[in-house]
Write a structure and sequence with these properties.
There is one protein chain. With 426 residues, this protein is α/β, with parallel strands linked by helices. Helices cover 43% and strands 9% of the residues. The strands form two sheets. The protein has a six-stranded parallel beta sheet with strand order 1-8-5-4-2-3, with helices on both faces. It binds nicotinamide-adenine-dinucleotide (NAD) and fe (ii) ion.
């Protein structure tokens, strides 16, 4: 195998500022959009950012058709509903107003209405789908996040739960990247504390995972530049964004969750989400995310408070962070210095810490956040037990796109031990 020698930075366009939401009408006009599909969920539909967006579109003379049935944590079935709604409508641009669930649904609608595939799984990541390339450019998509978490406004990734498989998977292409993300800290003020905590811990894990991902030079060299994956492994540019996101999380996550009126902390968190998005969008995530997909898919009856879902839900950020301490205790031996650097960016004094303790120190810092933010104490607290581990391992194994980026390879036995360790977090 010839090893990779190059890495790439795919830029994401974002604009940050309190009140920037109202610029969306002029932005759409400038992009040549006249008839926009506005995608949101049932809760965000009734919140100020939606009213501001609809006013801005009306003021710009843009026709708006609203789809407000996005499922909190979308599935293939809910994607299908949104795609069916949009198909045949005369729209030339899309605005997503909401959290990652909304932005990911809008990306799928954009792709499936622009280039309808023969089969739903054609664009979906291999080996679950065929991972066919997106044939050409998509319609303009402006993403207006109302959570501070996924960074989906910066990434070319759309994640959904494949109901038949009980695990999440996704579609990845740089062409899915929103044309523009409008980062407006006014839009996250109404988040329930549990949503702020869970989405904030998603940022934290995105940043550590992309910083500790296998280096890009360990991957095989691609035949053609265009097939170089977006999840290319850790690299010097992603590192900058990931480390800075960790410093911002250390400063502002607890303050933003505990006091939603703290404008400064909320502003830093919505920026941190995009910083981490740029980091992981160009490096990738690994085991905490790979293991989270069956954790959310196999949920039986746990319902996270604050989530407006008519179904059992272990929210994404929670399902990720529940695995994270066990994972970093396991991966630290592969790159102890990097794990320590991440702990330091999160505020730990590492001056007297031995490299052998890097995993424990980073994990302890994560469980400190979990405890302080009242996250359930491990997988057991959201309904899992030892007897579920084989199914959780089976749901993780096909997540090659992310699991192969783990700095320390994890086979089925390792994954079983990691899930066992994650049953109780702190
Ligand atoms: N595409 C990517 O790069 C990427 C990355 C990470 C996660 N994800 C996906 O994103 C989804 C999670 O997104 P999320 O964490 O942003 O949450 P979400 O979109 O699922 O929303 C969570 C809850 O908060 C509510 N809500 C959202 N904004 C609110 C506000 N301002 N005020 C009050 N309530 C509000 C929603 O109605 C919902 O009930 C998952 O499906 C996950 O897999 C995608
Ligand atoms: Fe995530």
């Amino acid at each position: 195998m010839q090893h990779e020698y190059a890495f790439e930075m795919a830029a994401s366009n974002v604009r940050f500022g309190a009140g920037v939401t109202r610029e969306v009408g002029q932005d759409l006009l400038d992009l040549g959009v006249r008839r926009a599909l506005v995608v949101t969920d049932a809760v965000v539909a009734g919140l100020p950012p939606m009213a501001i967006v609809l006013d801005a579109l009306a003021a710009a003379g843009i026709d708006a058709v609203v789809y407000d049935r996005v499922r909190v944590e979308p599935t293939d079935v809910s994607f299908h509903d949104a795609i069916t709604f949009a198909t045949g409508r005369d729209i030339d641009g899309i605005v997503a107003v909401g959290g990652g669930s909304v932005i990911d649904t809008a990306k799928a609608v954009n792709l499936y209405t622009t280039y309808p595939p023969a089969d739903f799984l054609d664009y979906v990541n291999a080996p679950i789908g065929k991972a066919l390339p997106v044939p050409g450019p998509l319609k303009p998509l402006i993403a207006i996040p109302t959570t501070a978490g996924t960074g989906s406004e910066t990434t070319g990734v759309s994640i959904f739960d494949l109901t038949g498989m009980h695990a999440k998977t996704g579609i990845a292409s740089r062409r899915l990247k929103p044309t523009l993300g409008l980062l407006d800290p006014d839009n996250t003020r109404t988040m329930p504390a549990t949503v702020a905590a869970s989405s904030g811990l998603d940022i934290l894990s995105h940043a550590i995972e992309s910083f500790t991902a296998v280096p890009y030079t360990a991957r095989p060299r691609p035949d053609r530049p265009t097939v170089r994956p977006a999840y290319q492994g850790s690299n010097p540019i992603s590192d900058v964004w990931s480390l800075q996101a960790l410093r911002m999380v250390a400063r502002s996550l607890v303050r933003a969750v505990e006091d939603p009126g703290n404008d400064e902390a909320r502003a830093e968190m919505i920026l941190a989400a995009s910083y981490a998005g740029v980091g992981f969008g160009n490096a990738g995530v690994h085991l905490p995310h790979g293991m989270s997909y069956p954790v959310s898919g196999h949920v039986r009856d746990y319902r996270a408070p604050g989530y407006a879902a008519d179904h059992a839900i272990v929210p994404h950020g929670m399902s990720v962070i529940l695995n994270a301490p066990a994972v970093f205790r396991f991966t630290a031996s592969a790159s102890p210095a990097r794990h320590l650097e991440a702990a330091e960016a999160l505020g730990v004094d590492i001056a007297n810490v031995r490299e052998a303790d890097a995993g424990r120190v980073l994990a302890d810092r994560i469980t400190w956040f979990m405890d302080r933010l009242k996250v359930p104490n491990g997988l057991r607290a959201v309904g899992y037990s030892t007897s579920d581990i084989p199914a959780l391992v089976e749901g993780t194994l096909p997540q090659h796109r992310v699991t192969k980026l783990s700095p320390r390879p994890a086979g089925p036995d390792d994954l079983a031990r990691l899930f066992e360790d994650a049953l109780v977090a702190y």
